[in-house]
Design goal:
With 719 residues, the protein is an all-beta fold. 2% of the residues lie in helices and 54% in strands.
Length: 719
């Protein structure tokens, strides 16, 4: 978004779009569509609400309509985010269908398009924008929408701020912030650190992050450069079998189990961990040539390396070491001959050099295996995109928007251990959008539009697509059958109102997805899987939200509510397993695995049909209180894609959170309580044999949600 900030009378956590703010439908800062006239819904979250989040950017979005968070790995720093039946996640293997940008740079990782929320500069964001649907010119991965993160600038008088906090599970940390204007330059910088032992075994997390941004704004020009450093260590205790959680037999090596069995870690070995390090340099230059013409230029270099360790039971431990060096830039020209017409066109390029080494390590089950490299491969991926956007206010009540984009993606595969397996993969795709909005009355506008989006397969999907040879996680790499790019045709229509103190937004959408990429897990060996295209899937839904500001009966109070219905279905007959994995009885049990077949109409796992949110904010004097409620409906488990029902569903749950803060002079004191009612819930579940059980029965596995926890902190501001 671009232009003025919303008025101070608007609650800081409002997500209702306001006039005068422009959507960044292009890769650059300057867009062409005023939000109030956009033919698609956009949510915007401002800085004050962002500052109350303490784990990830994903939790900032939790109360938006249709958004739900999962957690496969068991760490609050690595959630899965689902929107409109699509997902984005740090987990390799989950189809990634939401594009994420930081100051115009795509941060979906080049190896698997996953997003590591822990690497995003969450505390340094000015605003978060969620554009719903494949609208605009965001390019690949934008099937459900685009998440655009805009970092802060150091405008204003100089200020230093120190923050410290601590809470349950030995959670503590702090940050030092400094910003201001010096000699015509604006400077913003923050250094932050946190650590948490976690409430489960092998649930430790540590994060170190530094962010600095220097800019200069003139009458006709604006420029800035930023640098982000992140260095983390995060453990993930993963899912637990239901029998353990209900008091069943534990392995003999679990000598002193905790009173609360949700704290257990499954393998009993070293545990999974993820250790990333990020260096991210980004720059932007904007020049206004005359009253109608503006040119923008950006460039970035992003270096990230991470070590992912998988603690296994049915086979040797696996360590993946990935290095990604990315660089690129974008050039955009924006032409606005009069207030009713705006045109933007541009080109963006990106190069991703990816090197992946996979090692096999001995463990208790396989002690005689020698540590060694099993895969050594990579890619030098090239991306080239051309786009154009047009906004035309036909008359005072009617506005049209269209966009067109061409992408060329070149993903060569390089096998350094066996060069004969190397190969080329090229994808060319034309996408675009067309929409209209009408002002039907004072403060009310209808909108409707069509958009086509796509997602290109990435290196880990391309090289793990053979059902005859499912890959271990992290995936082994090889010359596998080719995959097709995913495309979606999406229609959405709705209305938004802005009257006095009440804002509403209602949207209905329908998305037909072609060649959808699906991660198939081997039901006999849940550490193995492969990718395949499905001929067709569908997402249909209805989203609504309402905000009531400054309630007359309760001065200082505001209410926000949201409700969404989502139906994500397979629309083709498909066998989601390797050919040799037919339905058969387990040798040690009278149970059978669900048939690995889906039919048209079967629901996607982990997609709740109903989600709802409610937030009450109250400000009086130096006090502020925020009470929020989030409901997630029941979901099918991973492994039950055919909706057979023999293993039931993940139960729905409701979480209540409370935040209270008080201004005391230059200090802000705050208390945050998550899961206030101490709800026992499971954000993730799958069906799998319990290989550490007495009879290796097939049963449900759950990743337990975090119990009630409190965080207390203080921020001290110094001029």
């Amino acid at each position: 978004a671009d232009a003025q900030e919303p008025p101070d009378t608007i609650p800081s956590d409002s997500v209702i779009a306001l006039s005068g703010i422009r959507v960044e439908v292009a890769r650059m800062r300057a867009g062409v569509i005023p939000i109030v006239e956009a033919p698609f819904p956009v949510n915007m979250i401002r800085r004050d609400a962002i500052e109350r989040a303490h784990h990830s950017v994903a939790e900032i979005l939790e109360n938006l309509p249709g958004v739900s968070l999962g957690n496969q790995v068991g760490s609050p720093f690595q959630p899965d985010l689902r929107l409109r039946g699509f997902s984005v996640s740090p987990v390799v293997g989950l189809p990634q269908s939401i594009s994420v940008f930081v100051d115009g740079v795509r941060v979906n990782e080049a190896d698997a398009s996953q997003v590591h929320f822990n690497l995003l500069p969450m505390r340094d964001l000015e605003r978060v924008e969620l554009v719903r649907g494949p609208a605009g010119s965001f390019g690949k991965n934008t099937l459900a929408g685009a998440l655009n993160l805009v970092t802060r600038r150091g405008f204003g008088a100089g200020q230093v701020e120190a923050e410290v906090f601590g809470g349950d599970f030995n959670h503590f940390g702090g940050s030092l912030l400094a910003f201001g204007e010096v000699a015509g330059f604006d400077l913003y910088s923050r250094l932050s650190y946190r650590r948490m032992d976690g409430w489960r075994m092998k649930n430790y997390a540590q994060q170190l992050q530094a962010f600095i941004k220097v800019g200069r704004r003139g009458v006709r020009s604006d420029a800035w450069i930023s640098y982000t450093l992140s260095s983390d260590s995060i453990e993930g205790p993963q899912a637990l079998p239901e029998s353990w959680l209900e008091g069943g037999a534990l392995p003999v090596d679990v000598i002193s189990p905790p009173t609360d069995r949700r704290e257990l870690q499954y393998t009993g070995g070293n545990g999974d961990y993820f250790r990333p390090r990020l260096h991210f340099l980004n720059g932007y230059l904007e020049r206004t040539l005359n009253s109608a013409l503006q040119v923008s230029l950006s460039g970035f270099a992003r270096l990230v390396d991470f070590t992912q360790f998988n603690d296994n039971v049915t086979e040797a431990d696996v360590m993946g070491i990935t290095g990604i060096a990315s660089g690129g830039g974008a050039l955009q020209v924006r032409y606005e001959p009069d207030p009713d017409v705006a045109i933007a066109g541009g080109i963006d390029v990106a190069r991703n050099d990816v090197d992946i080494e996979i090692l096999e390590l001995p463990n208790r089950a396989f002690p005689n295996i020698e540590r060694g490299t099993t895969e050594l491969a990579g890619t030098a991926e090239n991306n080239l995109g051309f786009y154009t956007d047009l906004f035309w206010r036909v008359d005072p009540r009617t506005a049209l928007h269209s966009s067109l984009r061409f992408d060329h993606v070149d993903v060569p595969f390089k096998d350094f251990l066996d060069p004969e397996h190397s190969g080329e993969n090229r994808f060319n795709q034309l996408t675009g959008a067309l929409g209209v909005s009408w002002e039907t009355g004072v403060g009310m506008r209808l909108f409707a539009g069509y958009a086509r989006g796509f997602r290109a397969p990435v290196i880990l999907e391309i090289t793990c697509a053979d059902p005859e040879d499912p890959c271990p996680l992290p995936f082994e790499l090889g010359a596998d059958p080719p995959l097709e790019p995913v495309t979606t045709d999406s229609w959405q229509a709705g209305f938004r109102t802005e009257r006095d103190r009440i804002s509403t937004n209602v949207t209905a959408y329908w998305s037909e997805v072609h060649n959808d990429l699906f991660s198939v897990i081997d039901p006999e060996q849940p550490t193995r899987g492969f990718f395949r295209n499905l001929e067709g899937t569908r997402r249909v839904g209805l989203e609504g939200s309402v905000t009531i500001r400054s309630i007359p009966a309760i001065p200082g109070a505001s209410i926000q509510g949201s409700l969404a219905w989502t139906r994500a279905t397979f629309e083709t007959h498909a066998t989601l397993a390797a050919p040799f994995l037919e339905e058969e009885e387990d040798e040690n049990s009278d149970q059978t695995l669900p048939p690995p077949v889906v039919e048209p109409g079967d629901r996607f796992p982990l997609v709740p049909p109903l989600t709802a949110g409610f937030a009450l904010s109250y400000e009086r004097g130096e006090y502020r209180t925020d009470l929020s409620l989030h409901y997630v409906g029941e979901r099918f488990l991973v492994g039950d894609e055919g909706n057979n029902g023999d293993f039931g569903k993940l139960a729905g749950y409701t979480l209540v959170n409370l935040d209270v803060s008080r201004e005391v002079g230059a200090a802000t004191l705050y208390v945050e309580v998550k899961n206030l009612l101490d709800q026992s819930y499971n954000p993730f579940g799958l069906i799998s044999p319990n290989v550490r059980g007495p009879s290796e029965d097939i049963e449900r596995f759950f990743t337990p949600g975090l119990p009630r926890r409190m965080l207390i902190g203080a921020r001290l501001r110094l001029q």
